[in-house]
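[recover] target loaded
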């Protein structure tokens, strides 16, 4: 694979120090460690080893990688393997791309309580999809879901949301047959937020002042604001 003309590591090495100085006090220790790992990845700073050809005796130095999960070079192979594995899971049916987003108030809470709120968001979104799909008034089937959490938006601001790939159908509740969704239509999106209200509101309550109007307002925003949209996709097989 040829090396691109410009990599993130090149930008970090050239402008990273000045950027960190300009944003001192506003960058977390974890973010600083990621920048450092990417800057030093495959350089002499991490050491290396010598590779030699037994035939022509040509040698070259191969520097060690940082192996940080945020490094695009280190995780490139893992990402390709993950995509190949997911492609092997595809069924010969149409698929839907479903996105769940949350209100800004919930995103603010999530920023300071990442593990708990991200887990809550994933559970609320998946439980909502499974519950609505199993309802005979909608699909009446057990569906499968591949869900991925994204924590940043296209503007590189904190914006937690869930991307789902959902097959256009599922196994009937008695397990005897395949139930197909209508073409280009999976579930009624207006039914989704209300279904998530119970579990998500209970999960958020631990971060709210007890009995306060702000607590009920934000919990209501979560219940009403867990928005979803879906787009029909073609099967990859």
């Amino acid at each position: 694979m040829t090396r691109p003309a410009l990599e993130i590591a090149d930008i970090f090495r050239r402008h990273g120090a000045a950027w960190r100085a300009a944003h001192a006090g506003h960058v977390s220790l974890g973010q600083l460690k990621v920048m450092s790992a990417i800057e030093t990845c495959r350089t002499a700073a991490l050491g290396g080893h010598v590779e030699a050809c037994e035939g022509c005796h040509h040698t070259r130095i191969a520097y060690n990688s940082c192996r940080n999960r945020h490094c695009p070079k280190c995780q490139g192979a893992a990402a390709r393997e993950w995509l190949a594995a997911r492609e092997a899971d595809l069924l010969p049916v149409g698929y839907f791309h479903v996105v769940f987003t949350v209100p800004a108030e919930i995103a603010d809470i999530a920023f300071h309580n990442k593990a708990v709120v991200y887990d809550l968001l994933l559970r609320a979104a998946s439980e909502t999809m499974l519950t609505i799909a199993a309802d005979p008034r909608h699909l009446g089937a057990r569906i499968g879901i591949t869900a991925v959490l994204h924590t940043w938006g296209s503007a590189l601001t904190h914006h937690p949301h869930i991307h789902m790939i959902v097959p256009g159908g599922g196994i009937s509740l008695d397990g005897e047959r395949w139930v197909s969704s209508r073409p280009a239509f999976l579930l009624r999106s207006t039914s989704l937020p209300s279904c998530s209200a119970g579990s998500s509101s209970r999960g958020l309550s631990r971060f709210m002042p007890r009995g306060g109007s702000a607590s009920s307002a934000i919990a209501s925003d979560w219940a009403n604001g867990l928005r979803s949209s879906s787009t029909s996709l073609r099967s990859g097989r």
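[recover] notes: Residues 90-233 form one domain.
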